[in-house]
Amino acid sequence: MRVLSADTLVAKVPLVWRALxxxxxxxxxxxxxxxxxxxxxxxxxxxxxxxxxxxPRDLFRGDxxxxxxxxxxxxxxxxxxxxxxxxxxxxxxxxxxxQGFAKANGVSRDWPKPADGTVVIxxxxxxxxxxxxxxxxxxxxxxxxxxxxIAYGLESYFVPQGEGKAxxxxxxxxxxxxxxxxxSGEAAIKRLLIDGKPVYAEPPY
Length: 205
Fold this sequence. Notes:
By secondary structure, the chain is α+β, with helices and mostly antiparallel strands. The protein folds into two domains: about 5-40; about 45-200, no CATH class. It has three helices and 14 strands. β13 and β14 (about 195-200) form a beta hairpin. The radius of gyration is 21 Å and the shape is globular.
């Protein structure tokens, strides 16, 4: 009995059905991505993030906000680890400062042991250097420190076209972000606040 190859079987399917199957697959993939984000927004643990200036770029570019946080720079020496590489996936333990904003308490390659009041957020190393932007926005190269620049997928936020003037002209110290972090460490922005008042909120869908 002759066994038909996969290519032969596919070739026997009418082109229109192949096109429909491809389109359906793309729709399902898009829906899966949207649903994943929606689950983070619905069920994730909320954290408050203080924003700091990004120099020399302006905060507002076009129709999206470029954001930077104190937790974007993590001192790897505090975790007793070194040798991190650019692009490497890492996990950062978050605590709270006196004002209730998230602060980084350590970084590791593996999922850290859970502790009460600790949120773990996943990110990727953007750069490794002794120089980094401090929590107040100043650039610091002092000491022999192993600082990691980490991206969490929270570094930009799209706003309705033409509605960014309030953000563009606002002192960056007045801007706060509320993000949701899932149990696996994935994060998404839920709200953008100025002086503690919501100015943009991300709908689940």
